[in-house]
Design goal:
By secondary structure, the chain is mostly beta strands. It contains four helices and nine strands, in the order E-H-H-E-E-E-E-E-H-H-E-E-E. Strands 1, 2, 3, 4, 5, 6, 7, 8 and 9 form a nine-stranded antiparallel β-sheet that branches. Strand 2 and strand 3 form a beta hairpin. It is globular.
Length: 213
C-alpha cells in the first residue's frame, strides 16, 4: 500500500534554489488552488524551466517589463501570463530575487475538486485530460492574471500553495526539449515529466506562426 501524499507545506527555501534544481523536484508535488467554489488540488506531472535573462526562451530574456515583473522575485510567488490572446499559463518563481527564473506548470492530475474542473473543461474527454497542457491546467484551476504575484508560502490565506506531496525519484523522471520553443532556446532540455504518466501533454516542436497576407 503506497503512502499518502505528504501534506506539509513547502517553505520559501524550496523555491530559493536554481531553476534547474527546482523544476524536476516539482514533479509529484501537490498544488492547492483555493477558489470561491471550493478547493482543488493537482499532482504535478510535467513542468518546464526558464532561466530568465540567460535563456532565449524566457519572457525575461530582454529584461523586466510590466508583464513579466513577477518573474523577478521574490521566490515562491506565481507568475501568470496571457498568451495568444486566448489562454493563461501558471508559473512558479524560483531562485534569488532579480534573476527572473521560473517553472511553467505544463500538466497534472486533478486529485481534489475534479467536479469543479469538469465544469471549466467541458471539452475534456476524460479526467486525464482536465489539466493535460498548460492552458488546460490554468483553465481547470480557474487561473487568470488576478493570481499574478500570489504568494505560495503565505499559508491558507493564499489562493495558491504547494505541499510536499509524493516526490518522484530521479529514475522515474524524463527530460527533453521544451514544447513550442524556437530559436536559440529550442534545444535546451528543460522540460521534465513523470515517465509514462497519462496526464503528460504531447511534445510539439516549435512551428513559426504564419502571417496572413
Amino acid at each position: 500500500m503506497s503512502a499518502r501524499p505528504d501534506r506539509t507545506p513547502l517553505p520559501r527555501s524550496f523555491f530559493d534554489r536554481p531553476v534547474l534544481t527546482v523544476a524536476p523536484d516539482l514533479l509529484g508535488r501537490t498544488l492547492v488552488r483555493r477558489t470561491p467554489d471550493g478547493p482543488m488540488e493537482l499532482r504535478i506531472t510535467e513542468v518546464e524551466a526558464y532561466e530568465g535573462e540567460a535563456d532565449p526562451g524566457s519572457h525575461a530574456y530582454r529584461g523586466r517589463t510590466a508583464r513579466n515583473a513577477s518573474m523577478f522575485g521574490p521566490p515562491g510567488h506565481a507568475y501568470v501570463y496571457f498568451i495568444y490572446g486566448m489562454w493563461f499559463s501558471l508559473n512558479l518563481v524560483c531562485g534569488p530575487p532579480d534573476l527572473a527564473s521560473g517553472v511553467l506548470l505544463r500538466a497534472g492530475e486533478v486529485t481534489v475538486g475534479a467536479e469543479l474542473a469538469r465544469k471549466r473543461r467541458v471539452s475534456a474527454r476524460n479526467d486525464r485530460e482536465l489539466a493535460k497542457g498548460p492552458a488546460r491546467l490554468a483553465t481547470a484551476l480557474a487561473v487568470d492574471r488576478s493570481l499574478d504575484g500570489a504568494d505560495l508560502c503565505s499559508g491558507t490565506d493564499s489562493p495558491l500553495s504547494l505541499l510536499t506531496g509524493t516526490p518522484v525519484a530521479p529514475d522515474l523522471r524524463s527530460h527533453g526539449p521544451r514544447t513550442g520553443v524556437g530559436g536559440a532556446g529550442a534545444a535546451h532540455p528543460y522540460r521534465y515529466w513523470i515517465t509514462d504518466d497519462p496526464t503528460v501533454s504531447p511534445y510539439r516542436a516549435h512551428a513559426p506562426r504564419r502571417r496572413s497576407t
